[in-house]
Write the structure tokens for this entry.
Amino acid sequence: MTDTTTDDHAAIEAQRRKAAVQARRLKTLDSIFELRAFIALGVLIVIFSLMSGSFLTTDNMITMTKHVAINAVLALGMLLVILKGGIDLSVGSSVGLSGVIAGELLKGVHIGSFVAYPQVWAVVILCMAMGTLVGLVNGFLVTRMNVAPFIATLGMMYVARGAALLISDGTTFPNLAGDPRTHNTGFGWIGSGRPLGLPVAVWIMIVLAAVVAVVLRSTPYGRWLYATGGNERAAELTGVPVQRVKMTVYMISGACAALSGIIIASELTSAAPQAGESFELNAIAAVVIGGAALTGGRGNVRGTLVGAFVIGFLADGLVIVGVSTFWQTFIKGAVIIVAVILDQSQQRFKKRGVAASAAAVTVEPAGDEPVRVASKA
Amino acid sequence: MSPLRAPAFRATATALFCALALSLSACSSSGSGSSDSADKPKPSGSHAKGSNLIAIITPSPDNPFFKAEEDAAKQKAESLGYQTSVASHDDDPNKQSELIDAAISRKAAAIILDNAGADASIGAVQKATDAGIPVFLIDREINKVGVAKAQIVSNNSQGAQIAGQAFVAAMKEKGNYVELTGKESDTNAGVRSKGYSDVISQYPGMKKVAQQTANWDQQEAFTKMETILQRNPNIQGVITGNDTMALGVVAALKSAHKTGVVVVGFDGSPDAVAQIKAGTMAATALQPAALGAQMAVTQADQFIKTGKTGQPEKQTIDCVLVNKQNADHFENFAQIS
């Protein structure tokens, strides 16, 4: 009898220790998973630096970051939509539409016999308003007409592209430099200016990322967004203005797309109606590599930025090393798939980790270790 | 929202949307979509089929080249007294097949087609021919003879050679250069790249330091060129598979503050001709898009009237070199006197 009790105690003690060890191991694995995008980025930088001396130079880092910025701006907008549990396929077309609108405005707007030449800041605002409008229609379709986000934004993808083609009559606006006589010069600065040594596009990315991060972390809107994406019904019952949140994420995403379009048009000082084709997929890839769940409610700015850097550095690195385009496409696809597989495994580990910690805690608390595990879990 | 108002609101919104969609589609058909020009006199020798419709099918008019081609064919056909219908297949063989079906059901007198793929288009062309409608191919060939009545294409190989020669001459036969190629699945991308190599490889002083595809795209060419410049800042020339990519290269060189780099493209687009005039591009090989389309319509007219085109099936049109000396004589893919 006494022996049995001792045995039982010993068995329970052993089980408890095992559970605690397992919980700790899963915790370590979890943090490695958490950092996987950073690790991937580090690995990319090391590999490309070893393969080419011109990869790890300040100048190249700045150039690559400028390339990343275009996708990152789109991806930050996309992140909000994905956090909500939606998707925005129209952003690539909004990029093209925004450039075309800029081209049309800089050419001069005919109002009767009078021709108005909007200043560059006004052009930027009007383009972003156009992007917001595309987002508004997306949001309207999703919230009021109950169209699935995939379908609504797929439709708007064609509508916006068609609009860009109609406005431009299918041709490229060749010269967006403006004319000193009409006081609308300076559009090219957005693409080629370098205040404090960094391209304007990079500054835009930094500011936008900071703003989105603060909004997500410390405003009611951020909490509403995570709640809506996590469980829409529950969020609605607790008084979250779900419809308004859904509407605004599409509008923000549209505005971000327009901003991207402006950057591209400014870099090229020309605007093609077919610009931005398939950019939506790059933006989604960045968000997914950054660990966001397409089902909504999970993801953050840091991950999305790293995701955009992984995609951008991979693309530019492969060009610098001189790898053929076929391989570039292949490798990009493989990276996305691996990222998603890792994400799935992380979620499984997390569940097991929670279960293991729970096991460690529920077994009789003797000593301080289970408490520590419990407080960590 | 009250339960009574909700359906009413939804119905109104749906109605509004339908109206919007309708007005949009109306816009597109009066714009650049399919447009029929009725009320034209029938051509004198009109075929017994009862229709004098010429269907013009091209890839997307995004690219000014196809737009010029489409406009030239339409204009020529209407001047000969035909009705025209214009549509684009967006490089989608399936959509092309549907457009051919539509032309067959409308009993078109002829089809002018810039096809959606050398192999993928054979079936569609065969289908029209079987239905008794002659097909005249422009710009791109198909991999079968005896199906279409004519295949009129610009001589990409010859164009690449004259562009390559101009490139070598502008670089004074020596230096480091970069090549940006078109979409690798496109036959023309390969033919042009080979044409460039055939010429340039004869000059030992010319060294290719990087080759990448930029998928015919301006922004992709810009990004790739910026990245290539990081690895190879010391380059004297860039040759590209089309003018759109050449324009991206020009923008990238400008953003890197590099001057004196020789840029040569292909197509002869109005934007490239403007760059040549400005001195930022050295040359381009102009494909006479309008001429090919006009030839096809003339031969279609001939065939409708006499049952013969009077020409061999495969015809090529030579490209013309545009450089600073003669840039003033070119406009919209055609030479103006």
Notes: The domain at 62-323 of chain A is CATH 1.10.3470 (ABC transporter involved in vitamin B12 uptake, BtuC). Chain A touches chain B through 40 residues (CB under 8 Å).
